[in-house]
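Protein Entry — a single chain follows
Fields — amino acid sequence, structure tokens
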Amino acid sequence: MSAPPQSLSQPPVHDVDPPAPHDQERARQSPPARLGALALAMIVGSLLLCVYAVHAQMPVNAVTLPHEDTLRPSVRLVLPQGWSFFTRSPREADFVAFSRGADGRWRSSLRAPHAEPRNAFGLARASRAQGVEVGLLTGLLRDTDWQDCRGDPAGCLDRADPVRAANPALLKTLCGDVGLVQRPPVPWAWSRAGDVTMPSVVARLELSC
């Protein structure tokens, strides 16, 4: 006769206590949820910082932010440049530099726009340095050296007396017979009016480089 089968021992069964409420709450707060809450807090904080930074540079107005009187000195100390640092008035006058060729015609000598292939798509710094050069040249001129011009700037430059000076720029792009023209941009309301010549002021220089 075969031996009776041996009985397999069963492991003891223990009662498991249900998780505490705070453990359940911690389990529900998964890492993505915590990251989302952190990102939301950072976005709200950044927006508040921008609002206070912009409003601190604005003139006195009817809007008052909470604790602004206390925070305004600190904001101006950390961000002193103000909103005008990032923007430029669309009505600000433009400076255009011209050079007189051997044929007597005036041609634009500006290296801009910076993103053109001749400027290595913005990598070459000569076009940006020319703005500094034009600023140095205008500093050499007196108020009486500028002449009002109501017509074509080239004709006004032909009639202007040249001011002889040495180009003080380190990177010289303007030499010889040079004309500087300062004129406001064409208003947006006139954008469809065709070729519009805005009134300007011109100055002529004879630059040695």
